[in-house]
Design goal:
The protein has 318 residues and is α/β, with parallel strands linked by helices. It has one domain: TIM Barrel. The protein has an eight-stranded mixed beta sheet.
Length: 318
């Protein structure tokens, strides 16, 4: 029994799957950035990428399910060479599905992707965009020199297409702490972001998601290099909040790796925590209606999702 399971037992909080409401697809580890908080360890030299054959099998499975939302992540999902083909296939599905793109913003300013914002707008794709701070110093320190200016330019471009200003073109921003600490209250951060981005750059967006950095992959390495790994893990453990458990993203999300394997969440995917006793289990070999009640694989990293107000792909749980 790991520490997280023990903590759940202390509070009589079993962690099992509810009805699947989100299919999260990791399209690969290729990215134009190498952010120091990245749990995927993504970057420009990564070769892991979802093939078109795998992508088609995933979409076929999704089409036969009643899951209402598909969540595309990476890496930079837009760098998958089949990204536009995927969006077109997903948008053609009946009934209509909600499509989320987890965008790092800077990709919209890269050569070859200049029309990506227009494409996303035309296909009514909801954008969840990384923006770890509203100050250039903090963003560049976390994500690389010049990233802040490129992110601002991309947000202004998205606003011109109507993103963040029209209800049918949702634009949400993601805050990640720039260090070994928990996010401030999400509502207060959202107010600060809206005030600063509007007053200095004329930028509008709908909501801010505050997401806790989990000690996985590159962020775990950063913590260890700076002698903060044990201290940060202890912060997560002591900040455990049992009220967050029922709202954890792993309960209603099926995560799919670039090879088609299923996981409880993107963090478990990066840790290789397979569903089938350590062996790969592929999406097309399961039925979405039969996973409810399944026990979720856990580890010390799970304390990151239950610390304080909780954390998930949609921001704070509480």
């Amino acid at each position: 029994m790991n520490r997280f399971v023990h903590k759940l037992a202390e509070h009589s909080q079993p962690l099992v799957r509810a009805r699947a409401e989100i299919l999260q697809i990791n399209l690969g580890k290729l990215c134009n950035l190498t952010c120091n908080h990245c749990h995927v360890n993504a970057g420009p030299k990564r070769k892991e990428i979802m093939t078109r054959e795998t992508l088609d099998r995933v979409v076929d499975w999704f089409a036969d399910s009643d899951i209402p939302t598909v969540d595309l992540t990476g890496g930079a999902p837009e760098m998958n060479p089949h990204f536009r083909y995927l969006i077109k296939r997903l948008r053609a599905l009946t009934p209509r599905r909600r499509i989320l793109d987890r965008c790092n913003l800077t990709i919209l300013e890269e050569p070859g992707y200049e029309d990506m914002a227009d494409f996303l707008c035309n296909h009514e794709v909801e954008i969840i965009a990384s923006m770890p701070c509203y100050s250039a110093e903090n963003v560049n320190a976390q994500r690389g020199e010049g990233v802040f200016d490129a992110s601002i330019a991309a947000l202004q471009k998205l606003n011109r297409f109507g993103y963040g200003r029209r209800e049918d073109l949702p634009l949400h921003l993601v805050y990640n702490p720039n260090g070994a600490f928990l996010p401030a209250p999400q509502a207060a951060l959202e107010g600060d972001y809206k005030r600063e981005l509007q007053s200095h750059f004329g930028i509008d967006f709908h909501h801010l998601y505050a997401i806790t950095n989990l000690p996985v992959s590159r962020f775990a390495s950063w913590l260890k290099q700076n002698g903060k790994y044990e201290e940060y893990l202890e912060l997560l453990v002591t900040s455990f909040n049992p009220a967050t458990v029922s709202g954890l993203m792993c309960r209603n999300t099926i995560n799919v790796g670039w090879g088609g394997e299923v996981f409880d969440c993107d963090f478990n995917q990066m840790l290789g925590m397979q569903w089938n006793n350590g062996k790969p289990l592929y999406l097309w070999d399961i039925n979405a209606t039969t996973v409810e009640g399944r026990t979720i694989a856990t580890g010390d990293h799970c304390f990151g999702c239950t610390a304080g107000a909780g954390s998930g792909c949609g921001g704070s749980v509480l």
